[in-house]
Amino acid sequence: MIELNAWAILTARKAFCSIALICMGLSQSVQAQSASVSTKQLCSPGIVGAVGESLKIKDFTYGNGGTIVSDVCKVWPKDETITLVAIAYRATSVDVLNLAVAMIDNGRNEVIATYKEMLGKQADIQLGRDGLSIDTARYDVTKGTRAFGVDVTRGTIMDWGESGLGRVRNLYVLDGNEIRPIIKGFYLSYWRFAPGSNLGWVNSETAVTDSTPAIETITLKIAISKSLTNDYFDLSIFSVSSYDDGFKSNREPFQYKLKFDGKQYPLNEMNKAYLKWLR
Fold this sequence. Notes:
- By secondary structure, the chain is mainly beta.
- The chain has helices at residues 6-12, 45-55, 122-125, 268-278; strands at 68-75, 82-90, 96-105, 110-121, 132-142, 145-152, 158-159, 163-165, 168-175, 178-187, 190-193, 215-229, 232-243, 254-258.
- It folds into 2 domains: 1-37 and 131-279, no CATH class; 41-129.
- The chain has a 6-stranded antiparallel sheet with strand order 7-8-11-12-13-14, with helices on one face. Strands 1-2-3-4 form a 4-stranded antiparallel sheet. It has a 4-stranded antiparallel sheet with strand order 5-6-9-10, with no helix packed on it.
- Strand 7 and strand 8 form a beta hairpin.
């Protein structure tokens, strides 16, 4: 299930008032490869049908009583005979969304591999038709393995007043005939009112004053490192802060190296270091 990481939970406890977003992109190099994130490409009925049949899901369609809430497909640049698929759909008779990730053989329109997980309640997520996207940056995590990303964008901003989060990305690899997640619940957006900002609120019934609070944005990037841990390349994370009013941040860039533990890249220790850097 996609849920808040430790640093997000701790940040939530500091909340006051709200609104803003920032973007943080995972990429092969230090520079974000925004072009690798899919423009919206809906899946064909043939692909949807193949995935639904593979997962044995009834009414696996969009609209008219169907269970699908959002879907996206993208041909994999690494192997153009394969289409990457992400579909969010309602679980049977409850307001819970599941996420199906699949690979399709384009020539035969057959499912090569699938992975399924729970996203959460639609009432909380409010996922729209455009809520999913696929990232195909060159995540060459081993010499013969390239990962791909699936982004989930909530219909509502996840905020706690003076800070908040946006999109979340998972990274997946093909492992034999199965799709396996190697990064789960990596939030791509973080913002907060700059420390010492005058939030400018008069009271709940009046507008804000002319004193507009400065918003600090955090931009994170990932590079594939040359060092290896458990046969997977380490992931070097870089982060810098900036302010929307043009004020130059005095923060030193955040740097962290994610190491593969044999199953995935765990985020807990990085989140602790990130929280410390934010203070």
